Amino acid sequence: MLIEFVVALLIGVIAGTFTGITPGIHTNLIAILMLPLILKSHFSISIILIFIVAMAVTHTFVDFIPAIFFGAPDEDTGLSVLPGHDFLLAGQGHHALKLTLIGSTIATISLIFIAPFFIFIIPKIYPFIQRMMGFFLIWISILLIYGEKKFRIKAILIFALSGFLGISTLNLNMSQPLLPLFTGLFGTSTIIHSIKSKTQIPKQSIEKLNICKKDLVKPTLATIFISPICSFFPGLGSSQAAVIGSKISGDLNREQFLILMGSINTLVLSTSFITLFLVQKSRTGIAFAISQITHLTTNNLYTIMATVALSTIIAIPISLKISKTIAKNIHKIEYIKISILIVIFLFFIITYFSGILGLLVLIVSTLLGLTCIEFQTRRSFLMGTILIPTIIYYLPL
Amino acid sequence: MKFQTTIFVLSLVGILSLIFVVQATPRIETGTIKSIRVSNTKTTIQLKNYSAELVIFGTDHLNLKKGEAIKFTGGQKVYKGKEELIVNNIFLVNNIKNQ
Fold first, then answer.
1. Sign of the torsion angle spanned by Cα atoms A232, A236, A239, A241
2. I want to staple A178 with a disulfide (CB 3.0 to 4.6 A). Which of A8, A75, A318, A392 is the partner?
3. DSSP of A5-29, one letter per residue?
């Protein structure tokens, strides 16, 4: 039995590595596609849970690699593209990846302390937070725009347009609407801009990471506070958590922001399992897949938490190895050719999963992403695409 | 500057196109059947967590049961103070059954 658990864990980690490293592929997609197969299989619930959770957790570690090195994020890592790309252009892509890994590791360790708070406190304050959530998000949006000193009008324009884009996209009869939306806004727009600017990637340095312990405090506190809330409420996920976390923690430097992105990505996923256990509601695609397989018991939850911890231990060296390999060789390859290939690949992936409508959304969101870059406004204003629909969802109208 | 303006205008046109597509495309909604009433001229379905009643005109036997998940499209209206949705198409989630 133990051997079966270990095999399930390792296969899950390998699957998560594949989904993480492949641009445009998210574990939510894989989980939903594999669900029919899983339901027909004869494996025990524990084996299936270990495989799915290991895949999902590993994905949260590895998925920053395509975002940083190739400008190809998924819906959870979109905001990391710009600071990650800046590090890459400064020859420190591997350094950027290590920062996200630190964040993800902090998240896994924090889970032990957050879980009791989450289980006992959140359900009690849920009705109050639910009533206030719309107003809270409006406040966050105002803070976001107010923080822009130089190009405020352009920032408001980008925020509003992305809101319209988000509302339209989420009301289309389309599978996986967030895939083309975030890929276009943060991924293909960055890649096309790099192609247009004839970006050359310099030789990357693989130095020991020196980070001040003080730099860990703000991202850790923001993650611990925001992630459980965002994983509990419908319509809120890693991307919204990143925006909220970055605003309430005050000004973050690029290092702190990447740590925040890493930690939120992992913690929102991990706490979504606790949400599923507490209220039988799924807030991530992975949690939904698990909800279709079984009704979680306390033992299942212990299995999941143990899998999260073990997957973290295995995923860290895998991510470091892949990142180091890419960092050592990326300056040797023609970045423009790779970028063009990735754009073509993303076009195919999105057409396959989301159809012609997905392709249309991808093109429009890419154009808006490029507009944001040309306007020299911060990419976080594009988060209006998910913030505005979420505000509308929560406002008591 | 020219590239900036072009990209901005194109993105604006793109967003307007998407809004148009949303308006022109009937929205597929999903729900779970809470209750069904069949009469000579119509079938009325109440869904869980859905305020409007679904109304399907016609006497074809739909073979739907309480608890089944369905997808549907239609137009909302208010009839005698009650919200109704006149169904154009209805699909059982596991099978496709076009009305």
1. negative
2. A75
3. HHHHHHHHHHHHHHHHHSTT--HHH
B79 contact A CB<8A:
no
Q: What is the ipTM of this complex?
A: 0.76
The amino acid at B52: A
Tokens for A286, please give them: 């992975």
The answer to whether A159 touches A144, Cβ cutoff 8 Å, is yes
What angle (nearest 5°) sits at the alpha carbon of residue A76, between those of residues A72 and A77? 40
Q: Is the pLDDT of residue A76 over 60?
A: yes
Q: Which of B22, B78, B15 is nearest to A368 (CA)?
A: B15
Structural tokens at position A159: 């925020």
CA–CA separation, A227 vs A129, rounded Å? 14
Instruction: Tell me how far apart the alpha carbons of residues A364 and A264 are, in angstroms, rounded to a whole number.
Output: 28
Among candidate residues A185, A115, A90, the one with its CA nearest the CA of residue A387: A185
Interface check A164 vs B, CB under 8 A: yes
Please give the DSSP secondary-structure letter assigned to residue B48. Answer: T
Predicted local confidence at residue A240, as pLDDT: 72
Average pLDDT across chain A, whole number: 84
Q: Helix or strand or coil: residue B66?
A: coil
What's the rounded Cα separation, in Å, for the pair A249 and B28? 40
Mean pLDDT of A162-185: 88
pTM comes to 0.77
User: What span, in angstroms and rounded, lies between the C-alpha atoms of A258 and A252?
Assistant: 9
What pLDDT is stored for residue A235 in this prediction?
Answer: 65
B12 Cβ under 8 Å from any chain A Cβ:
yes
Nearest residue on chain A to B20, alpha-carbon basis:
A168
B13 → chain A, closest CA residue: A364
Q: Is A161 on the interface with B (CB under 8 A)?
A: yes
State how far the Cα of A143 lies from the Cα of A154, in Å rounded to an integer. Answer: 15
Residue A69's nearest CA partner among A255, A322, A383 is A322
Q: Write out pLDDT tens, residues B8-63.
A: 999 999 999 999 998 888 777 888 888 888 887 888 888 887 778 888 887 566 67
